[in-house]
Amino acid sequence: MALTLPKIKISLPSFGRLTLPGRGGPPLALGLDIGSHAVKVCELHRLTRGYRLLTLGSSLMPPDATEDGALTDAEAVAGVISPLLANLKSKNRKVAISVSGYSVIVKKINLQVMSTEELEKHIVEEAEQYIPFDIDDVYLDFHDLQTNREGDENTDVMLVAAKKELVDGYLDLLEGLGLQTVVVDVDAFALENAFAAGEPRVTTENVALVDIGAGKMNINLLSGGSSALTRDVTLGGRDLTIQLQNALGLSFDEAEDLKTGKTPAPTEELQQKAVGVVQDTCRQWSEEIKRAIAFYMSTNEEHPISRIVISGGSARITGLADYLAHQCELPCSVFNPFARTEYDPLKIDPKYLQAAAPEMGQAFGLATRSVEF
User: Fold this and answer.
1) CB atoms within 10 A of CB 120
2) Does 249 fall in a domain?
3) 115 exposed, middle or buried (CB, 10 Å; 0-12, 13-18, 19+)?
4) Contact 102, 134 (CB under 8 A)
5) In this structure, what CATH number is given to the domain that contains residue 112?
């Protein structure tokens, strides 16, 4: 069995060592983030320093088209992706996607220092200790974090496994649309790559990246420029929308507009009730964040988390960043992957770009990936 297959390829960012080749470098993949709520697309052009945004867009997914990161209705998903790409008029057919959920395992392990060739031979045997699936049913990849210093005998290695059934479902879907999947990443690492591209000089700061999507919340704690802890929590923005819908007697769309601040509640009484529902849900999110940070701190007291950066559709909830900052007692901001990216305002509406930015992090991170690796 081949160890590192082209169907699963992770890339961990190197903060402070991020170097971008000139305009003649390899072309970039089309970033395609297939979420449970929407499909997001981002295409970038690599500049000598940084990126230029060529196109971006999103389209809502039908309910229950995916579940826990896996396709449940491939035809419905194809029916979203195809017209979206046609509307964006991108000619790039090489795409980068990411996966997550129960079928994806990310584990940092400590191993004896060895060459890449030796590690490739050893990693399957090592992986069997940490993966709750038959080793023949998964794609494996690894990344030596090279945490060893002079005289150290061990180094940290990031191990990733994804069930073949999950990955192959996406590959077959995209191939049927005439797309070539050149990279399959992990959601948390795609967002981490976006963060690294935006803040390449962050080398020592320890940051909590928190992506709050429709169906889940991903927490990725970065320490010393690499991921120290990743955690998926089955709490997301859709849960809040449904709670608002039930508590206030609204339609799903009305509750969604209320959640994101597009429309106010019909009455003052319902507005106060909505505030209570939002606070209860956001409190659950903050507890999960605090729990993850506390677990990290139990073995990393000398490297405390300095701030929280939130992303995802739910990051647009008015006052969420301030609320999390208060609850977690850490500065909190909303991530904008396009903050240092060039673009043509005649082709891309600045207001749309600002509104879409919080949920485009993973698509941006995927769009930074070369079609060659």
Assistant:
1) 15
2) no
3) exposed
4) no
5) 3.30.420.40
